[in-house]
Amino acid sequence: MSQPYDALEVLRGVWSARGQTSAELDEACGTKKSCKKMADVGFDGMAGADGDLRAAWRDRLRREGKLPPVSDGPPRRRGAVEGDGEAGGASEASGRHSVERPESVGKLAETLRQGGYLADRGLATALFVSLSLQRPILLEGEVGVGKTEVAKVLASVFGRKLIRLQCYEGIDTNQALYEWDYARQMLHIRALSEHQIADEAAVDKLFGPKFLLERPLLEAVRAGDQAVLLIDEIDRADDEFEAFLLELLSDFQISIPEIGTIKAESPPLVVLTSNRTRELHDALKRRCLYHWIGYPAAEREVQIVLVREPAVSEALTRKVVAAVNRLRELDLAKPPGVAETIDWVRTLDFLGATGLDPQVAEDTLGAVVKERDDLDLVRENLEEITSGA
Question: How far apart are CA 1 and CA 253, in angstroms?
Fold first, then answer.
């Protein structure tokens, strides 16, 4: 376990980012107290955490440049939870790290919270089953409710590599699976003598693994359970590409004619997201677990914002959440999601606003309303939207 002084340095880094001083920290926490007193220094709900939480905070601060990077020794896996010491090293002989999995739905929800994602019981249960049974999970929902963020946080807290495939209209297998390195092949051919070119074995080597350029799907199959594969906005891809995914999601294997079949030793965690711009085929859905992520209730949205932006005022957050919920009641082409709520709170906090009146709301609408026609409708209803805020 880290020494108390090390933990206090982590907290001092956080406080420094929030404009607080070491003296204020020492007064609130005491110079020889550990992170058991986190609640006293602005980390409500984390007071019972153990040393692994401190490690997670140190990693986060190092990524944000608020603590110096580790200069020696192997990097510590991020987001370690209780039991990590027993799970680690089980497969060192094979050169692969053992994969950490949550012990219960509650522990998974708490681990995600420590990573900055507040999942409800239903989502945490779906993710727990997906991790435990090694099944892909399809997340559908409104835009901006945190579908993509789930995969990012899962990769972070469990120390897996995030491999992202962003889907779009016209995406094909070459962009998603693999390509041949034609430039390297040409250089290799030029380096061969006439006698070598006539050798069939030499020509066959031109289509060997070293001339293969990995794209996200092949990279994920080779990485296996060391990776989280995010197939983002699958509804934007064509029907043909969706059909191509069936082999991957069924057997986690990819067939390359020149090389053969490459199969994952243990499947990666696959997260597919969809905004429902079109219906997905039943064959794809049958290969996945399914969960719908809707807009959260107002109180839960307040909690989500405070988890993501712990330095902002709770009073301001509640006012913004109330206004956003009124916006969603309007007939908008693109209602604001949770991401827009977080952006609006962050914008107002940056500008030093403590309340939300019609003028302040109009000045900052660009953080929450992203459609030209919607702006006109919102401006006509600003008094009602900000009433009570």
Answer: 41
DSSP 163: E
Supply the range of the domain harboring residue 243.
Answer: 111-177+215-293
Residue 178 is encoded by which pair of tokens?
């693999």
Identity at 283, one-letter amino acid code = A
Which of 202, 207, 178 is closest to 190 using CA atoms? 202
Position 282, amino acid: D
In a domain, 244, yes or no: yes
Both 234 and 154 in one domain: the answer is yes
pTM metric for this prediction: 0.69
Residue 85 buriedness (CB in 10 A; 0-12 / 13-18 / 19+): exposed
Hunting for tokens 């090694």 — which residue is that?
Answer: 134
Distance, CA of 109 to CA of 303 (rounded, Å): 14
* Amino acid in position 144: G
User: CA-based Rg of the chain, rounded to a whole angstrom?
Assistant: 25
pLDDT in tens, 350-371: 999 999 999 999 999 999 999 9
Q: What is the CA 327 to chain-centroid distance, rounded?
A: 27
- Joined together, the tokens standing for residue 108 give 């998974």
Owner of token pair 């719908």: 292
91 within some domain? no
Query: Is the pLDDT higher at 356 or at 248?
Result: 356
Rounded to 5°, the CA angle 76-77-82 comes to 110
As for how many domains the chain has, the answer is: 4
d(CA 151, CA 131): 12
Same domain assignment for residues 248 and 263: yes
* Amino acid type, 150: V
Average pLDDT score, the chain: 79
Structure token digits, residue 91: 């497969």
| CA distance linking residue 317 with residue 170, whole number of Å | 41
